[in-house]
Amino acid sequence: MRPAEEAVVPAIRRRFPWTNLLLFVATVVSTLWTGAVFSVGSGWTEEPDTLGGLLIAGLPFSASLLGILVAHEMGHFLTARHHRVDATWPYFIPVPFGIGTLGAVIRMRGRIGTRNALVDIGASGPIAGFVVAVPLLLLGISLSRIEPIEVAPNYFFGNLSLLRMAEAWLTDSWPPWKAGLFMEPQPLLYVLVKKWVFGVGPMEDVLVHPVAFAAVIGLYVTALNLIPIGQLDGGHVAYAVFGRRARKVGEAASYLVLALAIFSSVGWLVWFFFARRFVGLGHPPVDSPEPLSPGRRVVVALTVLVFLLTLTPVAADWL
To answer: What span, in angstroms and rounded, lies between the C-alpha atoms of 72 and 128?
Structure first.
C-alpha cells in the first residue's frame, strides 16, 4: 500500500463553468457602463453619441479594475489547486450601481489541511492583486490632473465619516460630500505616491483618471479582504499564525472597522455589520501541528505590509 502522502487523488469530473463565464461577461458589461459614466462625468471623455462609444469610454476603468480582481481571484484559485483543495472558478458579482461589481468569490469544498497551505491560499489573492494594482496606480496618476484646491485635505476625518456627517448636521453646514473633493478612498500607498512620486502639494489634489480610480478601488478592496476576521483572506492568515486565538484577533479587528466608519467613511459601517453578521469571527480548525515554514513567515510579514499600505484612513500631517 502506498504511503498516505503518495496516495492517488481521484480525478474530479468538472463541467464547463458556464455560470462563472456568464457572470464574468455580465461584470465586464456592468463595469464598462459604470466606467463610462465616471469617465464622462469627470470630464475625461466627451459624451459619446453611440452605445458602443459609451462602452469604449468605460474600457480604461473596466480593464484596470477587472485586471486587479482577476489577479486576486486567480491567485486564490491556482494556489488552492496547487494544494489539492477543491476550488471553483471565481463567481464575479455584477451590479448596476457603484463601481459595477461587488467583487468575486471562490467556493472551496473541504478543509485546508495545513497552516502553510492556509497562508498560501489566504495571502496569494491579495498579494497578486496588489502586484497588479501598483503599476496601474502609477500609470493612472501619471495620466491624472493635479489641480489646486480651496480646502486642505483631511485624510483622517474623512468627508464621508460619521463624525464629519454628524458635524455637518449639528452645525447646519453644507454636507461634506457635496464638496466634490477627496471622495475616493485614501489608502496609505495612494497618499505616499501622490506626495512623494508626483509631488502633490499641500493645497493640491489629484483629479483621478479612470485607471487611477480603478487602482485605488483595487487597493481598498485588498484592505477589506485582509481584515483578520473569520474566513476572509486576512482571517485565513491570522488563523495560521494564532490558531484558535484568531477569534479574539477578529473581534478586535471588527471594532477597528467600526472606528474606521466613525473617522474615515460610513461605508465601513456596512462592512462591520457584514463581517459580524455574515462572515462571522470563527474559522474552521486546522488540525495539522505543522509549524509555519520560514518562507511562510516571510509571506505573513508581506501580507501585513500590504494590509497597512492599502488601509485607510491616513493621518496626513507628517507627510
So the answer is: 5
Mean local confidence (pLDDT), 288-305: 90
When pLDDT is averaged across residues 261-290 and rounded to a whole number, the result is 79
Is 201 a residue whose pLDDT tops 90?
no
Mean pLDDT of 135-155: 83
Structural domain span for residue 113: 17-310
Q: Enumerate residues 6+ apart whose C-beta is below 8 A from 225.
A: 72, 125, 126, 232, 233, 234
Question: Do residues 232 and 278 make contact, with C-beta atoms less than 8 angstroms apart?
Answer: no
Number of domains composing the chain: 1
Domain assignment of residue 1, yes or no:
no
Q: Answer yes or no: is 131 within a domain.
A: yes
Residue by residue, what is the 3-state secondary structure of 39-62? HHHCCCCCCCCCHHHHHHHCHHHH
pLDDT at 65: 97
Q: Is residue 4 part of a domain?
A: no
Q: Which of 220, 218, 279, 284 is nearest to 253 (CA)?
A: 279
d(CA 290, CA 150) in angstroms, rounded, equals 57
- The pLDDT, as a whole number, for residue 17 is 83
Find the helix packing angle between 233-242 and 294-310, rounded to 10°.
140
Amino acid at 301: A
pLDDT tens, position by position, 79-120: 998 888 888 899 999 998 888 998 888 888 777 878 999 999
Residue 120 lies in a domain: yes
